[in-house]
């Protein structure tokens, strides 16, 4: 039986481990911290459960949500965008959703969304793959449905055709203006709260992995990947050697590179990160402004007001043990929107790139491991010619730094493990 060591017990590592074990491999997962999940993390603060890093689930494909029985709490509308002092509700039913934009005076939204959904159908063909597609391959398919602009134009250029500038950051993140409009489609999703916090994603996968015999070792920090003549031999962790035929790292490519003593092809840049996530435990809920009354169970997009995104997960999840507000952005603008918010706050836990780097072994504090822009898209993520496989035989990568990229999706781990299975079945391992 082939032995596999998976580096990292984040959601991608656990998905990979489960998939490999159910195909007959002997799998050990080594995790440096004292808990599973990575940034899919539920932490307790003053006895209240909070999704400390990631806070909503949206880009995980339905087959994986169902396979691992992720306890998603369905909300409709799933998101509300505040624009010019009025709410635009994103309902699951597309015609109802499009009427919201029409009422807001955004006449070309329906045309934009239909092209977007056509492109997302193209992307589905390239979701579960063992070799990342090239931009050219995706472009060829996109042209067939008239959605090639998502690859030929930048985020800003594409959206400027359809939407007012004030709405752009509701469809891509700041700093991605000049990146491929592919990212607009990547981040367009039905965002939902997970019961028990985002740590429940990892716990759901962990439970199934344990049931079929995956070994998970916590507090076991991998210090070196052992190789000889371009062939992996295992890893060294906490001064001990763990022999393995296959090593699959779901750590950042930057962190993975640091574990190799001599591998000139492994050089990656995490880029600079500038974000803030506030986990606010409340004594009581603040009085909501009229613009979002009736929508407090949804993800609330306040980008046009410079306040990022907020969600009150405890309003739809009674298992958290308290009242919780998640803020991806700055707190100050919220004090104007919620005049009584300061009086309602019990404690604020703030996560920054520097702290995330320490807590989650996240070089540069980059939540996506590598920048979500050129040259780190499609088969250039993490590097042209690599994909999930590396030049070192038996060494694979399957974290957010591989295709298709960041967010809690499980796709990189799933695809990387299938690449291992494919190579084994073809006698290449």
TrEMBL record:
- Function per UniProt: Probable oxidoreductase that may play a role as regulator of mitochondrial function.
InterPro entries per the UniProt record, alphabetical: Amino_oxidase, FAD/NAD-bd_sf
Protein name from the UniProt record: Pyridine nucleotide-disulfide oxidoreductase domain-containing protein 2
The protein's assembly and partners: Interacts with COX5B; this interaction may contribute to localize PYROXD2 to the inner face of the inner mitochondrial membrane.
- Gene Ontology terms, MF aspect: oxidoreductase activity
- The UniProt record lists the Amine oxidase domain at 13-257
Q: Which SUPFAM superfamilies match?
A: FAD/NAD(P)-binding domain
């Amino acid at each position: 039986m082939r032995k596999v060591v998976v580096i990292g017990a984040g959601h991608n590592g656990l998905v990979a481990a489960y998939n490999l074990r159910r195909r007959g491999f002997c799998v050990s997962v080594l995790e440096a911290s004292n808990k599973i999940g990575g940034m899919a993390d539920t932490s307790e603060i003053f006895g209240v459960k909070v999704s400390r890093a990631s806070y909503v689930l949206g880009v995980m494909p339905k087959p994986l949500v169902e396979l691992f029985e992720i306890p998603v709490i369905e909300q409709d509308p799933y998101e509300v965008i505040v624009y010019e002092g009025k709410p635009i509700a994103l309902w699951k039913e597309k015609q109802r959703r499009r009427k919201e934009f029409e009422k807001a005076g955004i006449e070309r939204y329906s045309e934009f969304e239909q092209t977007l959904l056509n492109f997302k159908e193209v992307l589905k063909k390239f979701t579960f793959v063992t070799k990342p597609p090239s931009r050219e391959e995706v472009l060829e398919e996109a042209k067939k449905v008239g959605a090639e602009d998502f690859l030929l134009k930048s985020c800003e250029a594409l959206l400027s055709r359809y939407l007012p500038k004030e709405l752009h950051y509701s469809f891509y993140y700041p700093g991605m203006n000049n990146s491929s409009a592919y990212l607009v489609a990547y981040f367009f999703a039905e965002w939902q709260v997970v019961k028990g916090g985002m740590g429940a994603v990892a716990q759901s996968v962990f439970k199934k992995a344990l049931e079929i015999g995956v070994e998970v070792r916590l507090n076991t920090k991998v210090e070196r990947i052992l190789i000889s003549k371009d062939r992996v031999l295992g890893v060294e962790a906490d001064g001990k050697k763990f022999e393995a035929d296959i090593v699959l790292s779901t750590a950042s490519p930057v962190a993975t590179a640091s574990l190799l003593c001599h591998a000139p092809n492994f050089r990656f840049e995490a880029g600079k990160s500038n974000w803030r996530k506030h986990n606010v435990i409340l004594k009581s809920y603040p009085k909501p402004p009229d613009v979002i009354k009736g929508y407090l169970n949804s993800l609330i997009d306040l980008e046009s007001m410079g306040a990022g995104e907020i969600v009150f997960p405890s309003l739809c999840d009674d298992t958290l043990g308290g009242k919780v507000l998640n803020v991806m952005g700055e707190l100050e603008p919220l004090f104007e929107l919620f005049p009584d918010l300061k009086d309602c706050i019990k404690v604020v836990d703030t996560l920054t790139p520097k702290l995330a780097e320490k807590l989650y072994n996240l070089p540069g504090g980059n939540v996506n491991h590598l920048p979500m822009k050129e040259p780190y898209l499609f088969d250039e993520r993490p590097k042209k010619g690599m994909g999930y496989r590396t030049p070192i035989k038996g060494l694979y990568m399957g974290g957010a730094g591989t295709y298709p990229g960041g967010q809690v999706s499980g796709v990189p781990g799933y695809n990387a493990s299938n690449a291992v299975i494919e190579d084994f079945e073809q006698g290449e391992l």
